Each structure stands twice: as C-alpha cells, then as structure tokens.
Amino acid sequence: MYQLEIVRCKGLTPLLRLLKSSFLPLILSSVACIRNISIHPANESPIIEEGFVNPLIELLSYDDNEEIQCHAISTLRNLAASSERNRKAIVEAGAVERIRTLIHRVPASVQTEMTAAIAVLALSDELKPQLLSMGILQVLVPLTASTKMEVQRNSAAAIGNLSSKAKDYSPFVDVWTSPADGLRYFLIRFLDENQSVALQHIGVWTIEQFLEGNDPELVSKIASTSEIVDSVTRIAKSPDLLRQAPPEDPADDLDGDIVGLAKRVVSALSNVDAKK
User: Cα–chain-centroid distance for residue 82?
Assistant: First the structure.
C-alpha cells in the first residue's frame, strides 16, 4: 500500500535527486527505497518514466559498496518483471552491456542479482536475438560452474529462457565447447545424478528447448554426446526423482515433471538417431 502511496504523492522526483547524490549514505538509502517501491507491479512504468533507469545502470559500477550494486540491479530486475515495454527500455538503455562488462569482477551477491535480471530479460521473445548478439552466452556459460548455487541456477535459467523459441541457434553452437568447457559441459554437469533434482530438471528442460528449435548442428551435437544421452535416459527411468523434488521447487514450472520431460527428450533423441 505505502509503495503505491509514495508514487501517487509524487515521491519519485525527490527520490531520484537523492539517488544522484555523491554522499554514499544517501545513495544507499535512496536505492534501497526505490528497490522496495519497484516491487509493486503498478510502480514499474512510473519509475521508468521518471528517469531512474540510467542512474540505476550507473550504480552497477559502484565498486565501493556491493549493497548499492545489489539494490540497483534488483530494482532493474523488478522493473523488467511484467512488461515487454519496460524490458525493452532497460536493454536499450545499456543495462545488458554494463552487466556483461562487470559480471565477472563483482562479488557473488551481485552476480546472483545480475544473472537473475538476465533471466527475466531473456523471457522476452523480441529481445532474445539482441541479447544473443551481444554475446551474453559468453558470460552466462562460465557462471553455470560458479561456486555459488544461486549464480549457477540463475545462469542456467537465463540460458534456458534464451533457448526457448529462439529464432537462431547458431550462438548456442558457437559456445558448445568454450568458454569454460562450453554449453556441452554445462549440460553434462547439470544432468549428473549427484546434482539436485532441480538442476537436473533445468538441464533436461533446456535440452528439450534445443531439440524443439531443430537446429541440425546443435541437435547433432547433443545426440552425439553420450554423457548427455545416458543421463537423460537414466532420469527417464528414475520415477524416484519425483519424490525427491521439493514441493515448492520452481523447476516444477518447466513443462511438467522431470521424468515425463526426460521421456520426451529420449523419444526426440531416438528420432534423431533414426534419421541418421
């Protein structure tokens, strides 16, 4: 309720002035405030229209205080949550280029927020080609091997979102073996039986997106990687995995249960073999 009242009472204009201050405590308190205000979906467009996007992008480079960086990127993610127009405005303002430049040298807490923001932006079918052309996979693929689980998961989710209904799969082919052992090793690692069911689920779902994209070169690379085929086959034959998945697991939203998903992938892969 108060989030809406601040906007209705024209509180955004003075808050933006505080955000542009050179005094660290003021910057920190104001960016924390706008983050909280941005949580309400009705406030997303007013915040963007007030001119917050560019100052928030500038704060991503605020190396002296990771809390400011976290609040800034989290606000941008909130602003992108429910509107295609807002996502486009954030990308056009240069947020993705800034994230791409900074993401490998910011603290893990900031990486967590940055990868979550990319995952949200990657939901946009219109923006996917642009994100891929920016080379975003070059930074996401290595982060799937991060020591921080949230960064791993967010990076994988972003790759999965980018892979769904993509118009051109050549950027995925380009990162098949590099950087950091590439997309191939990301899929092998996530499908490993020692991983959580949630991560295995993300791996299987991402493979299904690639197979549905029907890019001959990418499909061939997947079908000829025995570690991937063997892992998906194991999952398809493991009904116990359904009982291991936590009931609140967000991976449950990925087109059905993991075993049913794996069975579809195995069937699709067998069709690939039949065509050879």
Answer: 15
pTM of the model: 0.91
Rounded-to-integer distance, Cα 186 and Cα 192, Å: 10
Phi-psi region of 5 (alpha: psi -120 to 50; beta: other; left: phi over 0): alpha
Residue type, 58: E
Specify the 3-state DSSP secondary structure of 167: coil
**The two three-digit tokens of residue 23, written as one number:** 């005094």
Do 53 and 79 touch, CB atoms closer than 8 A? yes
Signed CA dihedral, 187, 218, 211, 275: sign only: negative
pLDDT tens digit sequence for 18-73: 999 999 999 999 999 999 999 999 999 999 999 999 999 999 999 999 999 999 99
Report the alpha-carbon distance of residue 245 to residue 207 in Å, rounded.
Answer: 19
Find the angle CA(200)-CA(201)-CA(205) to the nearest 5 degrees: 120
* Cα–Cα distance for residue pair 78/245, rounded to 1 Å: 28
Q: Distance between CA atoms of 228 and 207, rounded to whole angstroms? A: 9
Residue 211, both tokens: 């197979």
Q: Domains (ranges, CATH) in the chain?
A: 1-124 (1.25.10.10), 167-275 (no CATH)
